[in-house]
Amino acid sequence: MPFFNMSGSEFVEMFVGVGAARVRDLFNQADQKAPCIIFIDELDALGKARGANPMGGHDEREQTLNQLLVEMDGFDSNKGVIIMGATNRPEMLDSALLRPGRFDRQVVVDRPDLHGREAILKVHAKDVKLEKEINLHSVAAMTPGFVGADLANLVNEAALLAARRNKKDVGMPEFEEAIDRLMAGLEKKKRLMNMKEKEIVAYHESGHALVACSVPHADPVRKISMIPRGIGALGYTLQKPTEDRYLMTRAELLDRIAILVGGRVAEEIIFNEISTGAQNDLEKATEIAKLMVKEYGMSDKMGLVTFEQGDRPLFLGGGFAATKEYSEETAREIDLEIKKIIDESFHRVKALLTEKKEILKGMAKTLMEQEVIEGEALKKLLEELHKADAKNTLV
Q1: Which of 163, 184, 205 is the last residue of a domain?
Q2: Residue 273's CB: how many other CB atoms inside 10 A?
Q3: Which of 16, 20, 17, 19 lies closest to 67, judged by CA?
Q4: Model confidence pLDDT, tens digit, residues 186-226
Q5: How many CA atoms, within 13 angstroms, populate the side-chain half-sphere of residue 227?
Q6: What is the pLDDT averaged over residues 320-347?
Q7: Range of the domain at 165
Q8: Residue 294: beta bridge partners?
Q9: Catalytic site residue 205?
Q10: 200 and 180 share a domain?
Q11: Selection from 54, 65, 57, 52 nearest residue 92 by Cα
Q12: Could you tell me if 271 and 354 lie in one domain?
């Protein structure tokens, strides 16, 4: 059947009345071609909640939206015309647009799960020559949070790497390198660091990896590297989730914070000094602690209360006039609880790495020699270091 494809931004102009006229014209054409489908992409450009303009006034966009509401469910109902829309910001839409009889059915297109990623990889890889032993299920397991565009880019990146290496087929090494590129950025092997900086980076990444291998609720470490990547990363530690997760427990979140502060703690233990390299780690750790206190109700002191409204629709009190709904005293208590979570994680990790100081030194020494340690090699290295440490302790 006929398919009318429009973007929300195509309706609104600076000239008054043009948007409403375009809506009328679109529905007149649709009535003549019925049965048909109208699809409006980026619906929030057209259907944003009325009254959202901080300057006030009845602007052109609101007139266009009013005309759309009338056309969708006025006195003359459109028979045989199916209307669909797409948006990334459903909370911004006007409530009248979402009531029964208009856009009354909402379909959430979320990030794909493990099986979805595998199916998407098969679609994008069908025109690419792959090695016979390659396992797309394993590739899908290494890419949690990737959407269709990311996976298409991944296959393309892996194919380019294979071509540069004069290979006729794309193998697992290319996929792993492509994942590293997408997650951590391009390698900067020509970036020169002095020996002191290299040593700091080696201990920093070893701290992350050792904590990740020691706490009970951490994903397995897939790779640690001290090769600079992207804009600011002087090294990185990659973990491979064993499965897709939709819920996180308090213990798991605390272990994540512990892993994030592990690099900073390792620097402090070994050098009795700290560097600027932990800035991003501390940012992420603070964000997790903030969510635990303000949104997840995971603070004993603050209790089962949430202090964040999230993305509330404008017609329910969100938007420009939204303010925090708690006192300055409560805000201070929240700040103290966030700091308490970070401090407790710091002391926990410091005790752990102090106890395993010799293992940390062994890991950092090996990393400085090899620059990259893969998952299996890391596992064997840790076993050897643990045995050596136990032997020295007995002696």
Answers
A1: 184
A2: 8
A3: 20
A4: 877 777 778 899 999 999 999 999 999 999 999 899 889 98
A5: 18
A6: 86
A7: 114-184
A8: none
A9: yes
A10: no
A11: 52
A12: yes
Residue 246 shares a structural domain with residue 171: no
Query: Is the preceding omega at residue 216 within 30 degrees of 0, hence cis?
Result: no
Last residue of a domain, one of 72, 98, 124: 98
DSSP state of 187: B
Measure the CA–CA gap between 12 and 8, rounded to whole angstroms: 8
6-10, 139-143, 146-150, range with the lowest pLDDT: 6-10
pLDDT in tens, 361-375: 999 999 999 989 988
Q: What angle do CA 213, 216, 220 make, to 5 degrees?
A: 40
Q: Which two tokens stand for residue 215?
A: 């706490």
Burial class (CB in 10 A: 0-12, 13-18, 19+), 125: buried
pTM of the shown model:
0.80
Q: Are strands 221-225 and 372-374 parallel, antiparallel or unpaired?
A: antiparallel
- Please give the tally of structural domains in the chain: 3
Choose the weakest-confidence range: 93-107, 149-163, 345-359. Answer: 93-107
The string of DSSP letters for 339-384 reads HHHHHHHHHHHHHHHHHTHHHHHHHHHHHHHHSEEEHHHHHHHHHH
List the catalytic residue out of 205, 267, 268, 337: 205
Residues 126 and 35 in one domain: no
Q: Write the DSSP string, 82-94.
A: EEEE--S-GGGB-
